[in-house]
Write a structure and sequence with these properties.
This protein is α+β, with helices and mostly antiparallel strands and 106 residues long. 25% of the residues lie in helices and 36% in strands. The longest helix is centred in the C-terminal third of the chain and has 14 residues.
Length: 106
Amino acid sequence: MVKLPRALGVVDEKSQVQALDRTQPGLPMKKGRSATMTHDYKRNGTTTLFAALNVLNGHVIGQCQQRHTHAEWLKFLRKIDRETPKVIWTKSARDILQKVIRANSC
């Protein structure tokens, strides 16, 4: 039987996320009609989203950065390592399973 570690986490990065804003506020709900939003928006540039999910308890750590370089990525990895020192972090769920199987096969 495969023994899972106490905490598993998956991290990922998404670059070039468009920061959009509606040009007008939405109209509130009324009886018989749902809330409405305008279809037009203004662009506010792009951002980079870094996210980490602790698979076992659902805790999410997220951070937006203006740029997407290795320095920002390493800064985020250090942040999640400081906040969750006992979690095994990986880039994909497949990596988690491989680590667990390797650790239990010895």
